[in-house]
Amino acid sequence: MDLKFNSSRKYISISIPSKSQAMSPHIKSVDDIIVLGVNLSKFNKPTQFFICVSGVFMFYLIYGYLQELIFSVEGFKPFGWYLTLVQFGFYSIFGLIELQLIQDKRRRIPGKTYMIIAFLTVGTMGLSNTSLGYLNYPTQVIFKCCKLIPVMVGGVFIQGKRYNIADVSAAMCMSLGLIWFTLADSTIAPNFNLTGVVLISLALCADAVIGNVQEKAMKLHNGSNSEMVLYSYSIGFVYILLGLTCTSGLSPAVTFCSKHPVQTYGYAFFFSLTGYFGISFVLALIKIFGALLAVTVTTGRKAMTIVLSFLFFAKPFTFQ
Q: What is the DSSP string of the chain?
């Protein structure tokens, strides 16, 4: 703010700088969207969309393969929550490293909001990982493909959005089409389990809320991707650690993983690394295009993951 005193006319002129001028000199723009060190704000919307979609597909396809590979280790299935703990720990470290590499390190989103997002993140990822102890991977993915509908419902109640008939019809058709795979799997695959269905359904409920809360928070406070990942996953790490400690689930998991360090911690590192890269592109999609489009893209990715899962991991399946 500049003060100017005019002696001849005896008045004080007060000029308030614009929003961009008031910012620290190292911050280029409040609208900058940085993903893995790349400023997507320099590109037009179609190019931004192409880059984000490519990143989501590339990293999450590897992520899905590694996730199923970890759960194929004999005896690991009961430790889904411990895998989530390790994953959250790696995400927090990666987020901290990325945040140190950028010049603006300020936390923009309130801590209370991060506590809510962390709780929802624990729900969606922890329950999803744990469900793999009861469902085979394609069945779990197919259920998650149906989250378009709950995300739309969450958008209406949380953000006051309105969707046209075309949006609703497309979401319904995409979800119902993928349910066919689930029905086939339930009659053939032996590990279609009611407990797994309940777990993945609860994960979907958290999914319905988290994308909309993230979108609202990032657009309202202009939070960065690295900030969102660091705070939400580090708080979530504490939640899971407390939960495992209280339920005595930490010691057996640590004992098992110490006997198979490469197949557990080794795979988990690359699993978390590809997941971190993938979530960075998903958050960019949410911030630029909204939660619904981001979920639509990840749903398309999951459909491809199902195909690859049948190619790399043998499963009973038939066309009816």
A: -EEEEETTTTEEEEEPPPHHHHS-TT---TT--EETTEEGGGS-HHHHHHHHHHHHHHHHHHHHHHHHHHHTSTT-GGGHHHHHHHHHHHHHHHHHHHHHHSS-----S-HHHHHHHHHHHHHHHHHHHHHTTTS-HHHHHHHHHTTHHHHHHHHHHHH-----HHHHHHHHHHHHHHHHHHHHHHHH-TT--HHHHHHHHHHHHHHHHHHHHHHHHHHHH---HHHHHHHHHHHHHHHHHHHHHHTT-HHHHHHHHHHSHIIIIIHHHHHHHHHHHHHHHHHHHHHHH-HHHHHHHHHHHHHHHHHHHHHHS-------
- Per-residue pLDDT of the chain in tens (320 residues, 90 and over written 9): 554 545 555 544 444 344 444 433 333 444 577 787 778 888 888 899 999 989 988 898 888 888 888 888 888 888 888 998 999 999 999 988 888 887 667 788 888 999 999 999 898 888 887 887 787 766 776 777 777 777 777 777 776 667 777 767 766 776 676 666 555 554 545 456 788 888 888 888 888 788 788 888 888 888 777 888 899 999 999 999 999 999 888 999 999 999 989 989 999 999 999 999 998 898 888 888 887 788 778 777 766 666 665 565 555 444 44
Q: Where are the domains of the chain?
A: 40-312
